[in-house]
Protein 1
Amino acid sequence: MLLQKQHLQSINEGKVTYVKDFVKLERTYDFNLISLLIEENNLVILPKTNMSNLKDIFQIHKVSNCLKEFKTFFDFLSKLFRYERDPQDEVDLFFSLTSQIGDTHIDEEDVFILSLNGKTIYRFYGETDTDYCINKGDMIFIPKNIKHKAIGLTPRIIASIGFFGKKAEIK
């Protein structure tokens, strides 16, 4: 996992932060793996839009204990930024089987998005709109209360690592 000094500073300042090649992913994250995780862990899939078909965006809550690397990502970020533990902190998976646009929204927690498969644009709204395109192994930090949406350019799988507690500033 690779975070340079400017990434740490940007995250500590509560700025959207894009990290290209944050991690080299050895495992293949595909829809066969998603199916296996669901079956082995008795996970529930939640549709995120109202399409109610395979063109939807899906969410699987609380997967940090499903694969060793999910727990590793969670622990690394939690300890690095010294987040106060909150019971809602967790790793969720989001996936879509087709290119898809998510709803514009604001998260109430800090979120680290790790791309596991596919290509996704994250659009941020503010004084100027900004887009970041993330690919496998890239990460983007989205501070709470930032208006944004995801635009899947391909089928995609992302890990969303959310922290509701406060983080300590790293000096």
Protein 2
Amino acid sequence: MSFIFKYVAALIFSLLVFASGASAAPKAGDRIVEPVTNMSFVYIPAGKFLMGSPETEADRYADEQQHEVEIKKGFWMGQYEVTFDQYDAFTKEVGRDKARDLSNWGRGNRPVIYIKWFYAKAFADWLSKKSGHKYRLPTEAEWEYAARAGTTTAFSFGKHVGGMNNHSFFKKLLDSGKDSSAEDAERAMIDQHAWYGQNAGQKTHPVGEKKPNPWGLYDIHGNVWEWTCSLYSEDYSSSESCVENEKSNAKRSVRGGSWQFYAKGMRSADRRFFAPVMRLPYIGFRLVREN
């Protein structure tokens, strides 16, 4: 066999291997880095899950009624919340004002805050145009599905025992004779996975400092609440789709809890809402990239 024939055969084989690898479907936990902003994304596979919480879950709300949801298409979820550095790159290029940090906690790798829903949408649209891929906010259903990562407990890292809403001096005095071992165990577990009212020191923290959920998402519980693209509806009627009228001021769903709130607000099923014009120090966002 001639040298040239061997070379051509080897080249064809290499191309075939590359082509098969390039076309292979992504699997849960696969990771990509978006080159414009260096954001990292994790692949979330299609599947079914029970959205909401069981009636036995501590501190649940009436708008968390359980129902089965099917995520029909896999998607890529931001591994971290969008940071000041990433958002500042957008504002610099398009000539917008930088996001505020009125509390002077620092910028850089901390989650961007004081972001209207409309600003988060504009960032996603800018990145879509720059990269050639479709980026957007997650639907409420996609967010909970990704946060749960196949788990059924209150948090992706374990259950919630409740009773952690008020840690004032008077509550501690009243509870002084009560067995607090369950609360202590939950608090120790939360401290490994999330920034919230009891450990955050009343401020945000750089993304990725705590343990991730089983699918590799960091700060999905705590640090800042995250905008979704869904309208809030008590009966979940808008949870599986993005808002149709993007200019509407109807309330949008936010998820995940934050640095200034109780543990119950970080539960996977917990639902909150804000008007899309609100700019607050405890709301940020993360993006989805469509597969």
Protein 3
Amino acid sequence: MRRRLYKKRYQVKKKTSLFRNKLFKWGFALAVLGGITLYLICFLPYLQIKDVLVLGNEKIAPESVKQSVNLLLEKNILGFQSKSTILANLKTIKTKVLADFPGIKELKTKKLLPNVILVEVTERKPVAIWCRANNCFLLDSDGVIFENTTKNNDLTIFSEQAKGETYLGQKVIEKETVSQILTVQKTMLEKAKIQAKEFSLFENEGRLNAKTSENWSVYFDLNGDLNWQLLELELVLEKELPLAKRAGLEYIDLRFSKVFYK
């Protein structure tokens, strides 16, 4: 009996070129697209920041604000420098400028495409001078100190609380307290015809002492009814202490239900 011998046939697969591989094609296309996108975002000359525009400033030098902003704009990407408008972080810019310039109360930032950063500032306005020990600062209506100064003829508030750390941009008095002091000064001048430009604030006690131009003082309770206290001041000056009787006057105390004076 004859045996048939069969030879096993092997099929040899042809090697596919790497450049014909679909996965490689897609990967290569994505890499090229990513490189082009990176270039457009980071290095396209059209989108490189050319200027920082500062508006709304009165006392603060715009060049100083620009310098502060420019420090955040330049970035190192893959060893190359970029000042792309798209990459500029407006939140970071706002935080830095507010920290660098305590005299700025509010700040708005905006990208003006293709290559300008707009910075709109609202500066703090002084309403008084705030002093602790021998250090004096300009104070705004929010109770924030923002600039070193010296005592002059403007409204001055002396802090009589315990000494502590003091720095520009610090809130040293509550906004409501500043408003109360301004109201007291204005009402005393308009209703009682008495000028007061120096105030001593005892915040822990809620007490405010006003020194008048006639060299006597008025004691107020900031936790009480200021309208009542100011009305009582007006009445006592009119009925009991007219100008002719104030020569030896030291103080008028309005902190209690009854008015006391010496």
Protein 4
Amino acid sequence: MAAELKDVTNSRDRILGEVEQAVIGKNTLLEHIIAAILVPGGHLLIEDFPGLAKTLIAKSFAKVLGLNFKRIQFTPDLLPGDITGGYIYNHKEDRFELRQGPLFANILLADEINRASPKTQSALLEAMQEYQVTIEGETLQLPSPFIVIATQNPIEYEGTFPLPEAQLDRFLLKLAVGYPTQEEEQTILKNRRQRQEDEFDLAAVTDAKQLLEIRETIEKVHVDVAIEAYIVELVAQTRRQHKIAVGVSPRGSLALLKLSRVWAALQGRDYVLPDDVKQFYKPALRHRLVLEPNLWMHTGAADELLDIIMAKVSVPVA
């Protein structure tokens, strides 16, 4: 039985209330992550400096959502079999047994994903898109929901393998955590002193079954034809910008559609407004653009170009 719309907002409030005990001062970021988790295929790419709680965010959401969590530290010597698992010979029983790799989890943290070789990165593609892995010719389904949260360090490029466009396109959102304010950082210190330990005592407020029911409810959120045309025009404009070598594919349009429906439901509405689309225009599309070479070293160039496009496209009247 699908959840009611009020259950969506209630779940959001309970999830935020728990996660914000561990992650201080990042309300918008956390709401964007909740939105992604409520979208099938809501994989996240978080690119930011070390020490900004990327791992803590992933672990906190897994605990609060009542989901199974695994972490992989990506390194250049990591092999595809290290993440998918494989068949191991059992001498005692004289047969091969499947030993599942860390891919078999609800939430997978792919830490420093760009440090692994392209061969290992590609092992994630089938899992992220098809929710399955193939081992020795046998296709195995992954748990549902299955969400990859990948991290990258934007300042260390030595010994890294940049993600190909095909894999970047599989991520629903590209987000940054950002530094806390001084007041927020002082709160972090005070909470640690009062807690007297590094770990956080977070309670699970939902489970996999409830999340899947919420996803069913979100599928009923109405999207007007004018809103669909608005999404298509925003995406089409990325293919006409002379500073963008390759624009956004239809997968980007679908990402905006799904995210805007989730955001409307999280606000308690059963219909989408243009502001719901604007909320995710940059985080859903920035990593899908291939810029002209002279802009590759310009930090924030993708966001600037998307702002220009946003200003040019007429907003439909709701």
